[in-house]
Specification:
The chain is of the alpha/beta class. The protein has helices at residues 12-20, 28-44, 46-56, 71-80, 83-105, 142-155, 173-182, 192-201, 218-227, 252-263, 278-291, 298-308, 317-327, 340-343, 360-365, 401-418, 421-428, and strands at residues 3-6, 68-69, 110-113, 119-126, 129-133, 159-163, 186-188, 211-213, 232-233, 241-246, 270-275, 310-313, 331-335, 351-354, 391-398. It has 3 domains: 28-233, 3-Layer(aba) Sandwich (Rossmann fold), CATH 3.40.50.1980; 238-380, Nitrogenase molybdenum iron protein domain (Rossmann fold), CATH 3.40.50; 399-428, no CATH class.
Amino acid sequence: MIRKLDSTQDDFQEALDALLAFEAETDDAIEGAVGRIIADVRARGDEAVLEYTNKFDRMNAAAMADFDIAQPELDAALAALPQKQRAALQIAAERVRAFHERQKQELQGFTYTEPDGTILGQRITPLDRVGIYVPGGKAAYPSSVLMNAVPAKVAGVQEIIMVVPTPDGVKNQMVLAAAAIAGVTRVIGIGGAQAVAALAYGTESIKAVDKIVGPGNAFVASAKRRVFGTVGIDMIAGPSEILVLCDGTTDPDWVAMDLFSQAEHDELAQAILLCPDAGYIAQVEASIAKLLPGMPRKAVIETSLKDRGALIRVRSMDEACEIANFIAAEHLEISSGNPQQWADKIRHAGAMFLGRFSSESLGDYCCGPNHVLPTSRTARFSSPLGVYDFQKRSSVIQVSEAGAQTLGRVAAELAYGEGLQAHARSAELRIK
């Protein structure tokens, strides 16, 4: 049901490359439809958004105002939640907020003064307006509301506009409650490519935003690709991933369930175990067979493990770390005694979960660090969503009169070398 690989095999690297290979298929029909929707929204604004939302979400709204979900409704959704759910959301939100507040403290601007009085530095300021896309219908994730909205709020973003599709007019109450807790400015019950286009270009009733974050289906992903450049985006996320490095001392049932925790997302999700103990790998395989029949999402997990999962025997935990750096997984669990010694060897991972009790699922909901993470090996050059994604940096340059004498000559020499005479003369005019 799940393939087994061995790092001592001659063709191991080839097999690993094949296992990791994933390219989001570009469906020409989806790309064409998204292109038409975006162009139509740019041309007709609210009228087009209203038309597409009524069509795709089986709605019968007469005006864009019908899609607004006002603050009293958000507050009512929060108040109506069962006490345990409400408390869990509030605790998770506070932990996410506390982590990102600490993150913000590390993101400070600076200035310094040179001997001639020239002042140089960097100023950090928040984005003005951000759009958050939240999946609706069956795929409703209140945790994603917190993970996207709370860092934006901590960063100082003044307007957070959340769009969430409500097919057939059905609104997920936990999603609305999470918006209330996170302090979202405005919630609009629209989704799809038309929502992304409205956020990117603006309509009569929706102000254009500076950045769009949040997950969505293939239409949403395509739309985010197309509007990037007009607005910023967080990332185009691939299927969820978990990589477990285990020394063979953790309960195999725990590891099997950790693999399930990502495999249950969808059939394309990836779950991999690296371990130097062949006997332990057999135990995990037995746990998978034992536990899988009792899982409500058994079919999804089974397909994920069969198509993209693997149990890999490695020579040592040191080699496991080398392979982990190559894989650069979204979620990396180091399930061992003294996990820090192995964590010190890891350079590429979206998030690291150290020790047997640090299950990835805790990070998804309530540890505090963000669960929006780079996938498909992009952790080699990308980072988790954070406060820094909702800020930008401006260089500060205040050249003194004395500084202009020295820097002007340097700049002029380089400008003449590039054939840009106006640049050179601009600098020279300030030289005495």
